[in-house]
Amino acid sequence: MSIATAVEAGTDLVEYYYAQGWTDGLPVVPPSREKVEAFVAALGGEPDAVECKVAPRWGVLTREVLAVNAVMAGCLPAYAPVLRAAMLALTDQAFNLNGVQATTHMAAPLVIVNGPVAREIGMNGGGNAFGPGNRANATIGRAIRLILLNVGGGHPPDLDKCTLGNPAKYSYAICENEAQSPFASYHVEQGWKPEDSTVFAMAAEAPHSVTDHQCNDPEGILDTLCSAMSTIASNNAVLSGHCAVALGLEHARTIARHGWTRHDIRHYLWMHSGNAFRLISRNHRYGRVYNRNLPKWYRRDPDSRIPIVPSPDNIHLFVVGGEAGRFSAFIPGWGHMNTPVVKPVGTAEAPEGPDCAGGVCAI
Description:
Blueprint: H1 13-20, H2 33-42, E1 50-54, E2 59-62, H3 63-73, H4 80-90, H5 97-102, E3 108-114, H6 116-120, H7 135-150, E4 173-175, H8 186-189, E5 198-204, E6 208-211, H9 218-229, H10 235-239, E7 243-247, H11 249-257, H12 262-272, E8 275-276, H13 277-281, E9 305-306, E10 315-319, E11 327-332, E12 341-344, E13 356-357, E14 360-362
Parallel strand pairs: 3-4, 7-10
Antiparallel strand pairs: 1-2, 3-5, 5-12, 6-11, 7-11, 8-9, 12-14, 13-14
Helix pairs in contact: 2-3, 3-7, 4-7, 9-12
């Protein structure tokens, strides 16, 4: 892909890009030289500078190629630092993008932005955050997908082997609703400064709605969430790993009024979700194939509780959504094959600790 490619005057560029296989199935914005150069400038110039390599084809993502895909997705130059941080998170070894791109599972890279940059570029973490209508959310998520297709080669059915697909594979980028949340933000909980901006990335299914218009106490609301988490149908049930919770604003405020913290919420969800081992193993009716992927230290007795994830720290909690509606969402992960990664936007320094090095935190 190059902006220097010559086409005949009068060419329908939208149809031309379809013919080249450079789209996600939707029309793209023709990347004019002026728009691409403006995006490269926002990345710091040097169009040939290599940002990363993108699996499974291991295509080289230069700043110019990143800019071309971003412009085609409809991104503004102001989004450049967030998009770069997202791609660096996805291509970190811990994330296992090669597996995510090629899996038969419907996992898609979920990106959640925290910090001042989300406000500066107008991202939406409020009403309809996972839906349409916000340019930054939609186009940053779409640019990621175009890069995964055009640079990483993740085209179905060749290298993308996903059985069913997932609408989130078009675009899956939001921010946390920090302004209205009654809790400290996710990145602050992880040790970053409030003035830092970060990008969290995790391989995930689409959000699973959690409806609770009845309960007015933390235990009741979180028990409803636990019921959504406690299914043997998700990868987490049999492959452990990580998951995310998008706690709706009304639910979050109700819980906060009772003095609960983010720590309390995550630990309650971990302790009271899960399934008996006999349900997951189907009482060994089909052999022991579903036993080997669970952590070795889980007790295999028939009535032992098998947590959805190994630790409360594997539940990534974000406050998301608008003021009206007592809804939250559970977002299953891909299993132990993916480790979420947090990358700074710009020059923020990563928190000190054994899991953080070189500006990246593998959670």
